[in-house]
């Protein structure tokens, strides 16, 4: 195999030396590189295959870091990382001590901002553009926004505040499954006219001439503008963007580097703000991802030569068990509705969508709307189930407080990806929801196996409950050891009980596996401990507080931020009950977690069995020293 062009690209400036044919070859090499590497490490595949040409064109025209590129959502940044000196680090993509799957300024000066959640790029870009103007700095700020992110409200809040920024470019990466019908010959011709210097010069000359014509100049200028707007509305459906102050350009073929470069160079030489509409194909260049980009959006390691059947349900997990259980409950209760925010397959709600399409709502990347929409449904007698990843639920906290909790609306929150999440690092961890939901006194349940998930979901959807309540469960499948305990239907259970034990280990969800391992190791050291599994995290029952108050040492471990957590509530409740023993709270003290496996994250946070054993031993030693 001959030398690759990609081997000669170490920084964006290297791109500027390539000719047109070399650029096309480079794009093909990048796609092959992405496929080979992501199939080994996992990562976001389809979205990155779709933006290869766009990213190459941006770096051939712009000069980062003076020019800024803000990606939304950030998972489409892999080509950008390849072109900015990080190609050799892709073998550890999203792994401990490796590079992140999202832009991160701590990795490279070419990364403008961290971006793991959606809808944020435009607001960030506006802030950066204003900072450049205030500092009298040169450079263009570019927000590359996927069409999915345009379903979130922050994008429109940002568009309402562009304030005629002349150094701002917004690129809509429209990666629909097929090229939009308005990418035809006439649309391409008009786009070509609008992206040539001659077009802008002619427009400026006409304006200048009409401004000097007495009496009829101003009315004629107004009529021409109105006619142009009507034509554009018919051709581009773009008046919303221009009404907000943008100069709209597009649609442009996002896989034609020559056209992209010409358009970007023209825009760079004109005052903005500009809105460039680019059409791309998600999964471009890899047939399975093109046919079914949803399956290849975020992938684990896979065989690139295989082509899985997109109709086959994913492997068994908490998400799929939840999705099937909700179908069963939906069959029983016609008031149950399911709501998700652009995560139908990730949350297992595809089953409910198939069985009850009239009661399934995917609101797009709009968690705030999802929660208030649920409050509206509940206010009229429906029973909405809002299923959102823990990391995204935090975006809707105001709506939970104001729109759901104040009137105690009958809304069930199903919190997927709760606790530690591998690979995506600090942007996607599910470590906040126990803390912020418990502040509201909301009933919160955390099953540790499928049986408990099925049982407690059924209970939460029954008439036994009213008002907001939540059930949270981890990513992936159940732990085999925890599955053996089944479901007793109790709020908490003793998993281990020793004679005359004065120490108890308490936790919930899959952290219990580490707790059980710690108990075995402590037993070998002649330290007897009981182990309690709590399913109802909050509020606490009087019986549980009474049972725990019998112990001298209580260790409570949780995959949750320490401040405001269940553990802090529990320690306070015990003290209020007159307990004065030793409370060991093992939780997350540093919210900036590494992108690593769950086992590695537990080790880094002190929540693995070895650290739990050490914490108990230290407490026992201190207790003996006090005697």
Overall mean confidence score, pLDDT: 86
Structural class: alpha/beta
| Unreliable residue runs | 177-187, 307-314
Give me the number of helical elements. 25
Q: What portion of residues belong to β-strands? A: 15-25%
Number of strands: 19
Strand order of the largest sheet: 9-8-10-11-13-12-17
- Biggest pleated sheet: 7 strands, mixed
Shape: globular
Radius of gyration equals 28 Å
What does this structure look like?
The chain is an alpha/beta fold and 627 residues long. It contains 25 helices and 19 strands. Helix 23 (566-576) links the parallel strand 18 and strand 19 (582-588). Helix 8 packs antiparallel against helix 9 (217-236). The longest helix has 22 residues, at 20-41. The protein starts with 19 loop residues before the first helix and ends with a helix.
Question: Which descriptors apply to this entry?
Answer:
single chain; 627 residues; alpha/beta; seven-stranded mixed β-sheet; 19 strands; 15% strand; globular
Write the layout of secondary structure elements.
Blueprint: H1 20-41, E1 43-44, H2 46-49, H3 52-61, E2 68-72, H4 78-86, H5 121-134, E3 141-146, H6 153-159, E4 168-174, H7 185-194, H8 197-212, H9 217-236, H10 239-243, E5 247-253, H11 257-268, E6 274-279, H12 287-291, E7 298-299, H13 318-332, E8 336-340, H14 350-355, E9 360-362, H15 367-379, E10 383-389, H16 390-393, H17 397-405, E11 412-416, H18 433-438, E12 444-445, H19 450-460, E13 469-472, H20 480-483, E14 492-496, E15 503-507, H21 511-524, E16 529-534, E17 536-538, H22 542-548, E18 553-561, H23 566-576, E19 582-588, H24 598-605, H25 609-626
Parallel strand pairs: 2-3, 3-4, 4-6, 5-6, 8-9, 8-10, 10-11, 11-13, 12-13, 15-16, 15-18, 18-19
Antiparallel strand pairs: 1-7, 12-17, 14-16
